[in-house]
Design a protein that fits this description.
The complex is a heterodimer.
Chain A (H helix, E strand, L loop, with lengths): L38 E9 L9 E6 L25 E5 L5 E7 L4 E2 L5 E2 L2 E8 L6 E7 L22 E4 L7 E4 L2 E2 L9 E2 L1
Parallel strand pairs in A: 1-10, 1-11, 8-9
Antiparallel strand pairs in A: 1-4, 2-3, 2-7, 5-6, 7-8, 9-10
Chain B lengths: L33 E2 L4 H4 L30 E10 L9 E6 L24 E5 L5 E7 L4 E3 L5 E3 L2 E6 L8 E6 L26 E2 L10 E4 L2 E3 L11
Parallel strand pairs in B: 2-11, 2-12
Antiparallel strand pairs in B: 2-5, 3-4, 3-8, 6-7, 8-9, 10-11
Classes of the chains: A mainly beta, B mainly beta.
Chain lengths: 193, 234
């Protein structure tokens, strides 16, 4: 079949709250009391190239469940599904550029060649001023990351931009800090996925 | 694991940095994107069921539970969602948002001195049917001023958000209206390479127009899809 050209991307603009987020139904809590695995909190701030917070960004995440299984027909297991976990979350940044998610720690999943990847969360970032969204990944500072095949694609000096830091303040659920820098000397690694 | 995915086609998508759209200057990544092969992480993605939408969500001219009707030129906006090998995408979640007929968003950050419409929030959603078709009833949005440059006005547009079959299918875009004189002046659409801009302009569709009721527009959307190899079609 003849390939049709992809529809071009456009910015999400400043007013996406009208259509994508409803304060009465927050979409940044991916878990309930019955969700399997270790409950975690991810929080961070989106910054621009002048290191100013971005108060009108939208962060979306997609992840495997605690067993390392995606809720999708293409993932045939054998890791089990969790009936109390879909894996998708969405959070608009607040007036201070902040976002947060409550989720479960994802299990490890293999890449297309069967190599095990470290547990990670897939992330898309949208904002006013971004004509195209950006793809990135979040890894966890308390996991072994040295063998991860995607991190291996990244210059060692920039890998830290993909690693969320476990707060050692004893908070429960365990809380990870991960900021997104759209530009500048701490620019987050973005992928042409 | 089945094949890979089509790549983002940078011949049609805008770049991150497009200086005519001033907000891109500090919000554009400057480091080269790092190419990566697709794994299950990129080839899977969220699915939405009928619980994601409610009856009436696709009719923006009425607020659920309300009795009034939005002011403006009533229109139908319909089209198909395809993946780039041409397959329709069924059960794709389509979310839209737009300004009212006066060019004002129902949003606290919109300071445009144009009236709000008590019968119009401007948000809607639906799932595509088995043929990949979606359909909304709404009103023609107004153009509105913004601060990008002196005497800047956005052409009338409807924002579209789409989920396809995979994480990498995700798309947010804007649909414009044919014949709008503001289109050639708009730096947001202007970020798209010139040959690809017509892909974002809807088509007036007289066969969609309903006599005495509403004008019809068609806008088809092509998402990135998985490359399915013929060998897998058992």
């Amino acid at each position: 079949m003849a390939a049709a050209p992809q529809t071009p991307s456009q910015t999400v603009g400043p007013f996406f709250g009208v259509g994508l987020t409803r304060p009465a139904q927050p979409q940044n809590v991916l878990v309930n009391d019955l969700t399997e695995g270790v409950r975690i909190r991810i929080e961070g701030t989106v910054f621009d190239g002048a290191r100013q917070p971005v108060p009108d960004a939208l962060v979306e995440i997609w992840q495997a469940n605690a067993h390392g299984r995606y809720r999708h027909p293409l993932d045939a297991g054998p890791a089990p599904l969790d009936p109390h976990f879909s894996g998708f979350g969405r959070c608009p940044t607040d007036s201070s550029g902040g976002f947060s998610f409550e989720t479960t720690k994802p299990g490890a999943v293999a890449d297309s060649e069967g190599r095990v990847q470290a547990p990670h969360v897939n992330v898309t970032v949208f904002a006013r001023g971004m004509l195209v969204h950006a793809f990135t990944r979040l890894y966890f500072s308390d996991d072994g990351l040295d063998a991860d095949p995607v991190l291996a694609l990244v210059d060692a000096a920039r890998r830290h931009t993909l690693v969320a830091a476990l707060a050692d303040d004893g908070r429960r659920p365990a809380s990870y800090r991960w900021d997104i820098h759209l530009q500048g000397d701490r620019e987050t690694v973005f992928f042409d996925a | 694991m089945s094949g890979g995915a089509s790549k983002r086609d940078w011949r049609v998508h805008p770049p991150y940095l497009h200086e005519a759209y001033a907000s891109t200057v500090l919000r554009s990544p400057r480091q080269p994107l790092i190419p990566m092969a697709s794994s299950l992480s990129e080839l899977t993605g969220p699915a939405f069921g009928t619980d994601a939408v409610h009856p009436g969500d696709a009719d923006l001219t009425r607020i659920a539970g309300g009795s009034g009707e939005a002011i403006g030129q009533r229109i139908y906006v319909t089209g198909r969602v395809l993946e780039d090998e041409g397959h329709p995408v069924a059960n794709a979640l389509v979310e839209i948002w737009q300004a009212n007929a006066a060019g004002r968003y129902f949003h606290k950050a919109d300071s445009h001195q144009a009236p709000l419409d008590p019968n119009f929030t401007g948000g809607g959603r639906c799932l595509t049917n088995a043929d990949g078709e979606y359909r909304f009833t709404t009103i023609h949005p107004g153009a509105y001023p913004w601060n990008n440059h002196p005497n800047a006005w956005r052409p009338a547009h409807i924002h579209f958000s789409l989920f396809g079959s995979a994480f990498i299918s995700r798309l947010i875009t804007q649909m414009y209206f044919p014949g709008d004189p503001l289109i050639p002046l708009d730096p947001v659409l202007g970020g798209v390479p010139e040959h690809a801009r017509p892909l974002l302009v809807s088509r007036y569709a007289h066969e969609v127009t309903e006599p005495g009721i509403a004008l019809g527009y068609r806008f088809d959307i092509v998402l990135r899809g998985r490359n399915e190899t013929p060998m897998e079609g058992r």
